[in-house]
Specification:
Layout lengths: L5 H4 L5 H22 L3 E10 L5 E12 L3 E3 L5 H7 L2 H21 L7 E4 L2 H5 L3 H12 L6 E6 L6 H14 L2 E7 L7 H5 L4 E4 L1 H4 L6 H16 L3 E4 L5 H9 L4 E2 L10 H10 L11
Parallel strand pairs: 2-4, 4-5, 5-6, 6-7, 7-8, 8-9
Antiparallel strand pairs: 1-2, 1-9, 2-3
The protein binds ligand C2E and magnesium ion (3 copies).
Protein name: GGDEF domain-containing protein
Organism: Cohnella abietis
Amino acid sequence: RVKENGKNNYMLHSDDMDNIALHKLTIQHEMRRALANNEFILYYQPQYDLASGQIVGLEALIRWMHPERGLVPPGEFIPAAEESGIIVPLGNWVIEEACRQNKAWQDAGMPCIPVSVNLSFRQFTELNLTGKVASILEKTGLKARYLEIEITESMTMDVERASKCLKELTELGVNISIDDFGTGYSSFHYLKSLPIARLKIDRSFVRHIQQDTNDAAIVAAIIAMAHNLQLQVIAEGVETQDQLHFLRSHRCDEMQGYYGSPPLSSANVLELLQEKLNRPALPTYH
Ligand code: C2E
Ligand code: MG
Ligand code: MG
Ligand code: MG
């Protein structure tokens, strides 16, 4: 199969390279087939308001239901999807599926909360992303305020271009979050010039919040800065009650992590929403 793809032949000069290139070609071919075959599914991880304990959002996280390999996590195929460009149709599928599912929950009488989707750099630079998002919202009937888009800091590097794109999305009514905040390219310039609603503190800072005074200082500073800039702030990767206490005592707005819930199938989300319809989902203050 590698031989047939002339474009990549010159790259193969060792057994290792052979395997890597073959793996890439196989995975790209497999992803095209999988997209046509409906093998991708979205899981959803609840986001909790720290003051009320209520579920206030859901992050859509893609998985691949592979016929032989089982449930494949995104870390194993998103990089190849980005490199090959398949991320554009795949990413559009994610946006549409998340909007369709969120509208279906709303139609089933569940509380109306936003669903957030992760955007790749390639999608962000696609011509007319806003037009695509607008047509998906129209097709699925989901109101724009119930869709949120997560970008990473590196996508703001070209502030002028990011500004144009994010302004358009914001004018539609879609909110923008900065994912993995603190791990990427960090210029504070974009924070004041781009229409951003929310910062998501990367889980690497949250993990050792109890033991590492530097991490604790960084998290406290991000929360304070976000609030001074009138931004919402959510902590990722919260796994313990101690981490939760720290975040609450520093008035972090929201949290997402295994302590609340792992990512769930859509059926399990429905169950959770029904069950928690009017009850706090997280232990609240005493
Ligand atoms: P992310 O957007 O930062 O998503 C959070 C990741 O952290 C998820 O991994 C989630 O399962 C995991 N996580 C949540 N809570 C905890 C916790 O308490 N502890 C730990 N250790 N991990 C936790 P997942 O689902 O494997 O996704 C990994 C990454 O793949 C995502 O990071 C995102 O960058 C990317 N990704 C996922 N879905 C999509 C998608 O539809 N499109 C694009 N472009 N990227 C996606
Ligand atoms: Mg994310
Ligand atoms: Mg993240
Ligand atoms: Mg990420």
